[in-house]
Design brief:
This protein is α/β, with parallel strands linked by helices. It has two domains: 183 residues, Rossmann fold; 106 residues, GMP Synthetase, Chain A, domain 3 (2-Layer Sandwich). The protein has nine helices and nine strands. It has a six-stranded mixed β-sheet, with helices on both faces. Strands 7-8-9 form a three-stranded mixed β-sheet.
Length: 311
């Protein structure tokens, strides 16, 4: 932002900036929306719920605004220690926000037990929100228009939302209007990050998340939920040589280790190959990715390990 944007009174002449916390139930499309608004992938996506474990920042910068968007873990009734930590992260993100965006999945039948339970949980979370809140109805590409009005009325009972907007994070429908409405609610302020910075996440973090995404997409049942990834080393060699990355996939049991490795190592090789291709696109260079699998019993209940994972 240039000096011309600063008013004589020390204000910021119409420039708006602030934090937008995106909350919602698991698998509502929060990560898909952040990636769409950024125009690049910084947060992992899978069809499974509770894919996002950390609070991930995406920085959306326009001509007269900068939105610091916080992609948060899905809100749910947690049973395990790791899930309680995920919900804590999501709730704390709301306290840091200038605007809260509640993103919901319209493809879930409105009167189903799942939808009713989620609305109860969301109403409880929204009770402590003091900043403006926007309701965003996602996945309208899967919903008939005649079903929108009763759904909007149902959610309006949860909170006095500043705006209610239907979108599709998959196709982009409605997202331009969404950005306009969010910008209106942001306070006037300075640009916090340079134009070309899309996230504060480190390359190591994104690499670990990319590997974890492949575990979510390629393995079944409980395996993704009991897997974590730590990058052990990230070495850049002379120009023209590949970046060498060593990473450890952590699981809780020997049986899970066997599934991750697969028969004759085929599953581990597939995870590594698909992750490497995505990492090469991100880093724009060749990558040598070496994966190891380690059993760490009850790591999902270990606060120290969760802190090392950024939770």
């Amino acid at each position: 932002m240039t000096e011309e944007n600063i008013s004589p009174q020390g204000g910021f002449a119409g420039y708006r900036s602030g934090v937008v916390a995106i909350i919602g139930p698991p698998n509502a499309g929060k990560s898909t929306l952040v990636n769409l608004l950024l125009g690049q992938k910084i947060t992992i996506v899978s069809p499974r719920p509770q894919t996002t474990r950390n609070r991930i920042m995406g920085i959306v910068t326009g001509a007269d605004y900068q939105m610091i968007m916080l992609d948060t873990p899905g809100l749910h009734k947690p049973k395990e220690f790791i899930n309680r930590e995920m919900v804590r992260i999501a709730r704390e993100s709301m306290s840091d926000a200038d605007v809260v965006m509640l993103l919901t999945d319209t493809s879930v039948e409105m009167n189903s037990k799942k939808a009713c339970r989620e609305r109860e949980e969301l109403a409880e979370c929204l009770g402590g929100v003091r900043c403006p809140a926007v309701l965003v109805l996602n996945k309208i590409d899967l919903l008939g228009r005649e079903q929108l009005l009763p759904l909007i009325e149902c959610y309006r009972q949860l909170h006095p939302f500043s705006a209610v907007l239907p979108i599709s994070a998959l196709t982009g429908e409605g997202t331009e209007v969404l950005v306009e409405e969010l910008v209106k609610l942001l306070p006037e302020g300075p640009q916090f990050y340079p134009d070309d910075i899309p996230t504060d996440a480190t390359e190591r973090f994104i690499v670990a998340e990319t590997i974890r995404e492949k575990i979510f997409l390629l393995t079944k049942e409980e395996i993704p939920y009991f897997s974590a990834v730590m990058v052990d080393s990230f070495q850049e060699g002379p120009e023209g040589t590949p970046v060498t990355i060593h990473a450890t996939i952590m699981v809780e049991r020997d049986s899970q280790k066997g599934i991750i490795i697969g028969k004759q190592g085929k599953m581990l090789k597939k995870i590594g190959t698909e992750a490497r291709l995505d990492i090469e696109k991100m880093l724009d260079c060749r990558v040598m990715l070496k994966l190891f699998v380690k059993v760490k019993k009850k790591w999902t209940k270990n606060p120290q390990i969760l802190r090392e994972l950024g939770m």
